[in-house]
Amino acid sequence: MELVVDTHTHTYASGHAYSTLNENAASARENGLKLLCTTDHAESMPGAPHYWFFSNQRVLPRVINGVGIVRGVEANLMNVEGQIDLHPSVDRNLDWVIASFHEPVFHPANVSTHTQALINAIKSGRVDALGHLGNPNFDFDYESVIHCAAEHNVAIEINNTTLLGNSRVGSVERCYDIAEVAKKAGAFITTGSDAHYCNDVGNLNLVKSLLNQVGVAPEQVITSSVQRFTSFLELRGRDRIEVFNTL
């Protein structure tokens, strides 16, 4: 399966990443990507930028180094109500919102709490994808959450950095299980490198291997073509970005 979109990347604006957006775009082109989502951490993470940083993404070019730029954020799940740390006024200036659990923001609790937080985030309508769900510190009811995501057209992320096995230790087998449930539920799947350095942008080899082993069809993977990804954005109520269909 070809993967032409990386939906989870960071620049040095996140505070613990090391490359610029231009460097990420150049690496994306070298690694064969058509589209790049720039998704720095929202403000509750230590070192992350103010919410104006995300609102002002409207000034970014739609194409850098021949790669389409998707304006996004990795927001933090804040509580069991599923709130994220992104001011609602920012929503209209972004194309892509990932919601993720991070230990410095959401103290790990129990399966019921994590499950309810994810379901409430999905139902809020503000979240396009759920990030790196494999983290065993945030165990949840796979069936309930993924079926809810399928019902509300929220994508389930398979994260390449997680699959390396040295970050969020204990996640790898869980990611396979999550992908199996997503496949059966008919949920949309998205793919992210979670790159914190430009050379890792577009490195989706482990994700591709997982999807092939699980037998997920390309039609279910929104990053398998530009058209599938842009159609998903439109399904989510985003405006059509005409230039992306020329890449």
Task: Characterise the protein shown here.
- With 247 residues, the protein is α/β, with parallel strands linked by helices.
- It has one domain (5-246): TIM Barrel (Alpha-Beta Barrel).
- 31% of the residues lie in helices and 14% in strands.
- Strands 1, 2, 3, 4, 5, 6, 7 and 8 form an 8-stranded mixed sheet that branches.
- Helix 3 (111-124) packs parallel to helix 4 (142-151) and helix 4 (142-151) crosses helix 6 (172-185).
- It is globular, with a radius of gyration of 16 Å.
- The model has no long low-confidence stretch (mean pLDDT 97).
Feature tags:
single chain; 247 residues; alpha/beta; TIM Barrel; eight-stranded mixed sheet; 8 strands; globular; PHP_phosphatase; hydrolase; Pol/His_phosphatase_N; zinc
Level-2 CATH architecture: Alpha-Beta Barrel
Give the structural class. Answer: alpha/beta
> How widely separated are the two ends?
19 Å
Total of helices: 8
Number of domains: 1
Oligomer: single chain
Q: How many beta-strand segments?
A: 8
User: Which of globular, elongated, flat, extended, rod-shaped describes the shape?
Assistant: globular
CATH superfamily: Metal-dependent hydrolases
Q: What is the CATH third-level topology name? A: TIM Barrel
